[in-house]
């Protein structure tokens, strides 16, 4: 497996990277962890004329909490997320998802932002960020903009990121009050793309459900936010019945295709199972928090 | 003092492997590690379509790319009579397609360039115009009268049938079925999978333009056979072909056939006068080289009400792909599938088989199995479990009732095999005891009452491995004997050269242990060589668990021959009569005077310095061993699974494996082989699948889609042994490298089916994905 | 493009094309052939090397990315002529058969033991789940990592006393 020829630059600052992209964004690909991009280059599914390697840009590897957000820098690796001690309590959905992204070696290089930018409908981070109501901050030579993840993910392998822009950080609002969440993934083996996965986030407000976030992986052209399911929970009592109803609505929101991983019916059924299990787990965590 | 058996570390000792030193330091030499001065790199252009006529191939742009040395097409190969080559089943296969392409991934042309990157760049510059034809992907449809003919290159081929074959006694079987109280049947598909050794296939072809000598460094499990095939295909004089197989990164049957890439690289080296390297990538390996299985099977078992088996009837349809390239002995068409009567004393059986050409890759290699024994074992062991459900018997008890009894060996089966030895009940009982079978059945009952699903599956397999005998078994006419040449040097150190080929089995260690036991030379003093056809005696290679049964036997035999000669020399140096000498490991001593002795090292020295006048000098010789029969390893595997009803996922709780492969040369290595086979059996049962869409596009063309289990999914294995020596093997050993891949898939699937059996589920097709389990559950629940 | 990379402790300068994969740079330019290629899609881990101490799949890293960084291959595991305990362990516990996955397995294991000197079986199986072995069924690989862990702990105790 041998990539086609390309030019390569490794800018030392974000400004330098952005000015390169301002001129040649259309023919360039941005390299962060490279764990999706380099395989595409090798298979010659992608043959960009220019690779802009962000890895020499300082100050993008952070994973920190400030101003009511978890801020994930563009070069924060999946490995950093797995290793972070602070996530378990405040962001259990992220903590649950991180070890299920690809395999341990790929996680050493692969980044959260890169995965999101790749916009694979079977990608895990899209669902997690949708369930958490996260935003993506992107920057170009002409300035910053902040995009809700729901608007960032447009279609299969398509985002609203302009060729002149790079993601600088992902901002996850800190869940308020008693909250919990998890990520459940059915994969046939480590490193397999999900057959189905579900991200669930739940906040309790005085015993009732406050905000609920539910998003689905690998059951549509992109990660799907199960909006009707979320709405059915907001303000409801956390009962088996309300969870069951949310699971039903989430399964309805899925639009899976039948393939070697299973039939569409099967995938919908797993969505249902996972949403229900995920909500049970989220509730358990919320009550304990 | 004589060394003890223990000190010698011969047969039966778990000594550490001699070959490991280089591997743990990254100093192995695999084909891709070889780099020769002036070496060029070849890349192959493959068909994107499954079936299409080639209208034109324009390589002008590729040829013009700087760094490109040559473009090789089928037309060019045709000018040298190399456009087609024979397959292992006596069919023909296109080296590079000239008339049409017959499967996706078929070889169409190649670029030879100064480096591999340039070679791949140039592939994109070759313009091929195709005229698409309808693809035939279903073997049943392939045999319908109006199906498009795939092999229109063959004058005598008017349809897509590639063979018909049958064995057993049809009328006796039919009569038995008429008299049966109970008939149980099973339709099942053993899907196409791929051996996928971690190292792909490759070659460095180095044809010397001055001497004409072709040195081919190849990933070959059968270097001698390949040399002969090359001589026949290329018309090169065989003494000028040297096949060298350096370290091989796993084979599992994948490296038995000769592939177009080998031929093309050799032709390129011949034409260009420079060494040419071709190493396929993983996609090429998965879409074009020898696949395995792909058997659609129908089995029926006739029984009395009390569970006594009366007859077995099996029909199979094999999907052979575009060229009939099964690696198998000449006299059979469906390998040794007729071992399908398994471990059971069946009075009658009839097996019929037919094969279809389809627009898929050719292959049909024995993936860690002895020529289709895996499919047979799967069929009978799945069928027996269903029979037990039908009769309301425990599956273990039904097996027990029908096992071939220990006193019936050698046992002649109704399909013509003579089983050498066995004690099936002992192996099964040990497995049941170790797993705690009765307690598990009780637990299963309790859990079912709580709505939880636990399954206990077993397989009591019998294999047939180690072909010859030469009178019955040959490949392309080459008889399936094997060989060993032993040279004991004056200082008592030795070199053993064998005709079989290790791909990780540890021959450098185990074969030295055989010599150690027979001659008393410690393993560390013995260098084992293989895989260089100029240097080692002719042999048929390593596959079908044949190394120990054939070359292992040859090693024992030549050691014994040299020991006989050594005795004459010892008698001469000790100045006694041969009859006065006795042998113990490592030395001859005079009866009644144990201090008067000559060690094997003393004798070796004397063989070159002080041998009797009437005896040839030296202590060297070779033996070609023609096995009188094959060997029949057996065992019982029990698998326990738990099922998540919400997702259909199944998790293995326990795997208990009892194997009987006769005498074990190195128990550590045997266990390692069993672990590997149990893991591959799990992989086949759970996830490994090569499938195709209706246009013949291969799904499973890289490791994203062709799934190999990791350390995380792979269960732990509990391995145990019984020992029933082979009566005809020189030291009682049977082959073992494939037992666990052969026996275990049925055990895994039986376990999952067993978890759902009370709901009426009787079959799940491999790979048993969570989706399939879930669907079976839905169907069962809605039906009840 | 010119790069300077430290491979197995030795500073190496090279002029390479940006598209050159690290694995090809190691194997072809430096002739360190212990690092193997087993797949095209970053699944098998046969090409695993340590990049600044962390296992990465060298088929999914551009060689130019390693400029100024530290790469350890299987050839760099042994120190001063002495095998790394994980190398001994793979032999002792029969953790290899064909040897093709072994370099990657050992490097991942060595990195695990750096981080987690006393791993559980689950830790080991999880850490190795990016490396595929087709021969061993993983059991003896797990045992090998445990063997190395014991040996390294014993050595640490010895040298500490």
Commentary on this structure:
The complex is a heterotrimer of chains A (289), B (784) and C (161). With 289 residues, chain A is an alpha+beta fold. Chain A contains 12 helices and 14 strands. In chain A, strands 4-5-10-6-7 form a 5-stranded antiparallel sheet. Chain A has a 4-stranded antiparallel sheet with strand order 11-12-13-14, with helices on both faces. Chain B has 784 residues and is α+β, with helices and mostly antiparallel strands. Chain B folds into 3 domains: 167 residues, Aldehyde Oxidoreductase, domain 4 (2-Layer Sandwich), CATH 3.30.365.10; 185 residues, Aldehyde oxidase/xanthine dehydrogenase, a/b hammerhead (Aldehyde Oxidoreductase, domain 3, Alpha-Beta Complex), CATH 3.90.1170.50; 328 residues, Aldehyde Oxidoreductase, domain 4. Chain B has 20 helices and 34 strands. In chain B, β32 and β33 form a beta hairpin. In chain B, 63% of the residues are buried. Chain C folds into 2 domains: 75 residues, Roll (Ubiquitin-like (UB roll)), CATH 3.10.20.30; 71 residues, [2Fe-2S]-binding domain (DNA polymerase, domain 1). Chain C is built from 5 helices and 5 strands, in the order ββαβββαααα. A 5-stranded mixed sheet of chain C has the order 2-1-5-3-4, covered by helices on one side. Chains in contact: A-B, A-C, B-C.
**Cross-sheet strand order for the largest sheet of chain B:** 3-7-1-14-11-12-13
Roughly what is the average pLDDT of chain C, rounded to an integer?
A: 97
Q: Strand sequence of the main sheet of chain C, in spatial order?
A: 2-1-5-3-4
Give the strand tally of chain C: 5
What is the number of helices of chain B?
20
**Computed structural class of chain B:** alpha+beta
Count of discrete alpha- or pi-helical segments spanning 4 or more residues of chain C: 5
Task: Give the termini distance of chain C in whole angstroms.
Answer: 50 Å
Average pLDDT rating of chain B: 96
Secondary-structure arrangement, i.e. CATH architecture of the largest domain in chain C: Roll
CATH superfamily of the largest domain in chain B: Aldehyde oxidase/xanthine dehydrogenase, molybdopterin binding domain
Number of strands of chain B: 34
How many structural domains does the protein architecture of chain C include? 2
Of all chain pairs, the largest interface belongs to: B-C, 57 and 59 residues
Runs of chain C in which pLDDT lies below 50 for 5 or more consecutive residues are none
């Amino acid at each position: 497996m041998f990539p086609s020829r390309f030019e390569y630059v490794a800018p030392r600052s974000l400004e330098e990277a952005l000015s390169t992209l301002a001129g040649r964004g259309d023919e360039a690909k941005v390299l962060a962890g490279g764990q999706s991009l380099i395989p595409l280059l090798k298979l010659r599914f992608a043959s960009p004329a220019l690779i802009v390697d962000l890895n020499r840009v300082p100050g993008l590897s952070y994973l920190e909490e400030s101003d009511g957000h978890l801020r994930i820098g563009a070069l924060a690796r999946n490995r950093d997320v797995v290793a972070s001690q602070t996530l378990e309590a405040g962001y259990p959905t992220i903590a649950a998802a991180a070890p299920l992204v690809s395999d341990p070696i790929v996680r050493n290089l692969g980044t959260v932002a890169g995965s999101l930018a790749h916009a694979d409908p079977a990608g895990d981070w899209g669902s997690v960020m949708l369930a958490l109501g996260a935003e993506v901050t992107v920057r170009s030579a002409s300035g910053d903009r902040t995009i809700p993840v729901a608007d960032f993910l447009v279609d299969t392998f398509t985002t609203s990121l302009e060729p002149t822009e790079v993601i600088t950080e992902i901002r996850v609002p800190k869940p308020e009050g008693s909250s919990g969440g998890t990520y459940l993934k059915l994969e046939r083996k480590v490193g397999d793309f999900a057959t189905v996965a579900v991200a669930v986030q739940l906040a309790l407000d005085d015993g009732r459900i406050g905000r609920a976030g539910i998003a689905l992986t690998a059951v549509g052209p992109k990660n799907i936010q199960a909006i009707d399911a979320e709405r059915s929970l907001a303000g409801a009592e956390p009962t088996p019945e309300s969870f069951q109803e949310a699971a039903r609505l989430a399964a309805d929101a899925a639009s899976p295709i039948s393939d070697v991983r299973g039939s569409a019916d099967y995938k919908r059924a797993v969505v249902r199972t996972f949403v229900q299990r995920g909500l049970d787990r989220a509730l358990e965590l919320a009550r304990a928090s | 003092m004589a060394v003890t058996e223990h000190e010698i570390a011969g047969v039966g000792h778990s000594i550490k492997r001699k070959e490991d030193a280089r591997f743990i330091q990254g100093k192995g030499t695999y084909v891709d590690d070889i780099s020769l001065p002036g070496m060029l790199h070849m890349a192959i252009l493959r068909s994107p379509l499954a079936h299409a006529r080639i209208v034109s191939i324009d390589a002008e742009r590729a040829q013009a790319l700087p760094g490109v040395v040559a473009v090789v097409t089928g037309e060019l190969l045709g000018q040298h009579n190399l456009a087609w080559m024979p397959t292992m089943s006596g069919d023909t296969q296109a080296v590079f397609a000239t008339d049409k392409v017959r499967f996706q991934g078929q070889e169409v042309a190649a670029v030879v360039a100064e480096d591999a990157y340039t070679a791949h760049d140039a592939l994109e510059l070759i313009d091929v115009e195709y005229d698409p034809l309808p693809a035939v992907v279903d073997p049943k449809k392939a045999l319908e009268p109006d199906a498009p003919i795939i092999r229109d290159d063959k004058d005598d081929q008017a349809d897509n049938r590639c063979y018909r074959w049958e064995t057993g006694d049809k009328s006796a079987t039919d009569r038995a079925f008429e008299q049966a109280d109970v008939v149980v049947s099973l339709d099942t598909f053993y899907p196409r999978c791929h051996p996928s050794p971690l190292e792909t296939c490759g070659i460095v072809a180095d044809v010397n333009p001055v001497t004409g000598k072709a040195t081919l460094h190849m990933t070959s499990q059968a270097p001698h056979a390949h040399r002969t095939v090359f001589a026949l295909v290329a018309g090169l004089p065989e003494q000028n072909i040297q096949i060298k197989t350096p370290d091989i990164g796993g084979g599992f049957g994948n490296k038995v056939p000769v592939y177009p890439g080998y031929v093309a690289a050799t032709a390129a080296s011949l034409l260009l006068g420079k060494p040419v390297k071709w190493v396929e990538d993983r996609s090429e390996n998965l879409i074009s080289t020898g696949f395995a299985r792909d058997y659609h099977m129908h089995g029926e078992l006739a029984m009395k009400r009390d569970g006594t088996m009366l007859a077995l009837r099996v029909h199979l349809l094999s999907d052979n792909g575009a060229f009939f390239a099964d690696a198998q002995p000449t006299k059979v068409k469906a390998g040794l599938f007729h071992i399908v009567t398994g471990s059971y004393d069946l009075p009658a059986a009839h097996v019929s088989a037919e094969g279809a050409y389809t627009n898929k890759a050719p292959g049909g290699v024995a993936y860690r199995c002895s020529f289709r024994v895996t499919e047979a074992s799967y069929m009978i062991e799945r069928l027996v479990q269903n029979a037990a459900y039908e009769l309301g018997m425990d599956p273990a008890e039904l097996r027990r009732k029908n096992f071939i009894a220990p006193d019936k060996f050698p046992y002649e089966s109704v399909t013509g095999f003579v089983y050498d030895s066995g004690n099936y009940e002992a192996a099964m009982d040990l497995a049941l005891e170790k797993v705690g079978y009765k307690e598990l059945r009780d637990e299963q009952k309790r859990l079912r009452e709580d709505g939880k699903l636990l399954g206990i599956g077993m397989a009591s397999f019998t294999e047939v491995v180690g072909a010859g005998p030469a009178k019955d078994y040959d490949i392309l006419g080459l008889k399936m004997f094997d060989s060993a040449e032993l040279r004991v040097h004056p200082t008592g150190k030795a070199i053993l050269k064998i005709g079989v080929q290790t791909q990780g089995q540890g021959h450098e260690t185990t074969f030295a242990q055989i010599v150690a036991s027979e001659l008393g030379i410690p393993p560390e003093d013995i260098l084992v060589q293989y895989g260089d056809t100029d240097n080692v005696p002719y042999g048929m290679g390593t596959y079908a668990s044949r190394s120990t049964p054939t070359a292992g036997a040859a090693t024992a035999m030549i050691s014994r021959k040299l020991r006989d000669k050594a005795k004459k020399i010892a008698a001469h140096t000790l100045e006694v009569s041969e009859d006065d000498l006795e042998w113990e490991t490592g030395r001859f001593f005079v009866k009644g005077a144990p201090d008067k002795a000559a060690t094997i090292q003393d004798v070796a020295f004397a063989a070159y310095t002080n041998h009797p006048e009437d005896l040839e000098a030296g202590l060297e010789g070779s033996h070609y061993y023609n096995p009188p029969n094959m060997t029949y390893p057996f065992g019982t595997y029990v698998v326990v699974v738990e099922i998540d009803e919400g997702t259909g996922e199944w998790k293995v709780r326990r795997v208990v494996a009892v194997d009987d492969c006769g005498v074990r040369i190195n128990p550590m290595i045997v266990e390692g082989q069993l672990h590997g086979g149990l893991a591959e059996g799990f992989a086949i049962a759970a996830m490994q699948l090569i499938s195709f869409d209706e246009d013949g596009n291969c799904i499973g063309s890289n490791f994203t889609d062709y799934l190999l289990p990791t350390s995380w999914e792979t269960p732990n294995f509990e391995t145990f042994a019984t020992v029933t020596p082979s009566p005809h093997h020189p030291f009682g050993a049977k082959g073992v490298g494939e037992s666990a891949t052969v026996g275990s898939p049925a055990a895994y699937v039986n376990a999952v089916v067993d978890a759902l059996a009370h709901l009426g589920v009787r079959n799940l097709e491999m790979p048993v994905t969570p989706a399939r389990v879930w669907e079976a559950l839905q169907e069962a629940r809605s039906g009840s | 493009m010119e790069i300077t990379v430290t491979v197995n402790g030795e500073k190496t300068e090279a002029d390479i094309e940006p598209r050159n994969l690290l694995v090809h740079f190691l194997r072809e330019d430096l002739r360190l052939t212990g690092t193997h290629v087993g797949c095209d899609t970053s699944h098998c881990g046969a090409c695993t090397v340590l990049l600044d101490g962390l296992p990465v799949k060298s088929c999914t890293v551009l060689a130019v990315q390693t400029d100024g960084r530290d790469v350890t291959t299987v050839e760099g595991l042994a120190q001063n002529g002495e095998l790394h305990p994980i190398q001994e362990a793979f032999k002792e516990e029969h953790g290899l058969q064909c040897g093709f996955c072994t370099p990657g397995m050992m490097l991942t294991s060595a990195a695990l033991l750096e981080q987690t000197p006393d791993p559980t079986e689950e830790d080991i199986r999880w850490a190795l789940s990016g490396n595929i072995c087709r021969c061993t069924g993983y059991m003896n690989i797990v045992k090998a990592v445990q063997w190395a862990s014991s040996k390294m702990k014993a050595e640490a105790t010895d040298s500490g006393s």
